[in-house]
Amino acid sequence: IRRPAHRSRRAPQTPLARGGRERSGMQQVLRQIQEAVEPVLERSLTKRRRQEFLASAGPLFLCLTFIEDALRVLLRWKEQMSYMTVTMRMSGWLGGLLLIFSLVTQMTGSVLVLRPKEVKPSRVKVGCYTLLAFVFLQPFMYGQARDADFMCRSVTLAGGLLLLIWSENDRKQRSEDMGLPSGMESTSSDRLQLCGRVLLTFLFFFQAVYSENGGMHRLWTAPSLFGLISFVVLAGLAGMVCAGFKTEWSALLLCGILFLSNLYMYPFWSIREGLRDFYRYYFFQTLSIIGGLMLLALHGPGGISLDKGMKKAI
Question: What's the pTM value of the predicted model, to 2 decimals?
Answer without folding.
Answer: 0.78
